[in-house]
Amino acid sequence: MGEHRDVVDAVVIGAGAAGLTLAHRLVETAGAEVVLVTAPPGPLRPAERTWCWWEAPGGPYDDALVTSFHRLRVHGRAGDVADRAPRRLRYKMLRSGGLETLVRDRLANRSAFREVTATVTDVRDAPGGGAEVRGTGPEGRPVLLRARWAFDSRPPPRLPRARTTLFQHFRGWFVRTPHAAFEPGVADLMDFRVPQPPRGVAFCYVLPLGTHEALVEYTEFSPAPLPREAYERALRHYTRHLLALPEPRITATEAGVIPMTDGVFPRRAGTALFRVGIAGGAARPATGYAFAAAQRQSRAVAAALRAGLPPVPPHPHSTRSRAMDAVLLAALDTGRVRGADLLARLFHEVPTERLLRFLDGDTHWWEDIAVGLRTPARPMLRTALTLPLRARRPAPAPAPAAPDEHPDHGHPRKASVNDGD
Asked: What is the pLDDT of residue 5?
């Protein structure tokens, strides 16, 4: 593979959720000529991973879904349960392999789409306008791509300075049981009946894939990821004592780290260079949800390109949402609020569809106020008043997730450090 000197409309770097879906929208809805740059097999290519989000039935990627859920349950620390069935929304579960297959099948016969495998070493504004992307192909030959615009969905090299930086870090087991143990279509979204960290919140969730199979995951929002054995210990305790599954067969695992920060991610890296996905701020600061926000970004970029406007990715979350999230992150970080009690209370007291849209950052201002009124007034007000006094500091870098052993195949499987793509 050598140099490609043709100038295309857009080069998209990274084939995770943000990169794939942006390339798909640019070709199908904006009529753009697009080159998608995919990392070669190895440490730069993320392992298979899972994305979940709320959406009405009939979405553009429904054909690739693993499953979806029409009922959601949230378990409080004391065992109380909020059992909800949103009327218009479904909680959708998508695996990266399914999304890749769907998008590549849809674009396979489109002459405006081309995929290049390369390790990108440099992205810059080109002399005279546009962008240049340089890299190395699988056989070591140089790759040069030129485009009017370049979109980079790779993880940022460092997190922005912030008043508060936490991490959503998790480890999950795909389990199979000899007897029917799960209820398809019903997701245990958050189960707070696990020990809580002094700063942040911890929970498990269960996403059934059938009556005998499910993804069971332990998640924390806290200042730093845990050693692998701590996640394993939490999952063993949860499956044995709360799910009553003494020896489930573990067929696969996944792990990841997502930044939760009130720092500002720059979406523009040059005149013709943009960042999208988590690198462009798609992860909701207080929840870590990123898939729906990345889709909002990609729709806006495609619409701008189709209209002949500079395709600057909009901020996926409003200033109001980011301000509310900054207060909540600081309240969790200082221990002024118990995250488990707060989230359980919201699911009990806020209309379900409003809360789900709030968690994805897709609500109106009056809905945000209505949600805010259900939070503990005194500690949240105190946090809001003292927030400007917190200095913005360089964010710590999370430790990478440890490699996994795949139980079915006995070979190392790299854990998925979520790239927010």
From this structure: 55
